[in-house]
Amino acid sequence: MHRNSLNAYQMVEKTTISGRETEARVLTEAAIKLKYCLDNWEAKDRCQKLDEALTYNQRVWTLIQSDLLDKNNPLPRQLRENILSLSAFIDTRIFNIMAYPAPEKLNILIDINLNLAAGLRESSTAAPRENFQAA
To answer: Rounded to two decimals, what is the model's pTM?
Structure first.
């Protein structure tokens, strides 16, 4: 019974969460994975956890790049180009960390992910208010 309730809740959540909120959650999850590695740098499983975190981040940013390159993307051209430049930096940093791991290199990735997630959450909550006021 409890399992069915949980499944029903998760289904409703999936259909009601905005795309921006989903993106914010994924970026936050990416930051959490990196932060775990930073906080547990001396752990035995650090290499595995770091590889998982970096791979996850790489996938997230590849999806972001793909979305930005879509000709139907509604974002202004300049904003898309700025985020694509940022994603190129992210790619370079991820590869650099893979080749030469160092805990201090994770901070910038964590900060970028969290700041972008915060901006997405802010814009997803502002949009409905703007639409409501315009009506």
So the answer is: 0.77
CA-nearest of 51, 60, 70 to 23 is: 60
Would you list the domain boundaries of the chain?
A: 22-129
CA dist 130 and 133 (Å) reads 5
Give 22-129's CATH code, choosing from 1.20.1070, 1.10.287, 3.30.70, 1.20.120.
1.20.120
Contacts of 101 (CB under 8 A, 6+ apart): 47, 50
70 vs 46: CA distance, rounded Å: 36
Q: What digits encode the pLDDT tens for the residues 16-43?
A: 456 788 999 999 999 999 999 999 999 9
Nearest C-alpha neighbor of 17 from the set 8, 7, 29, 25: 25
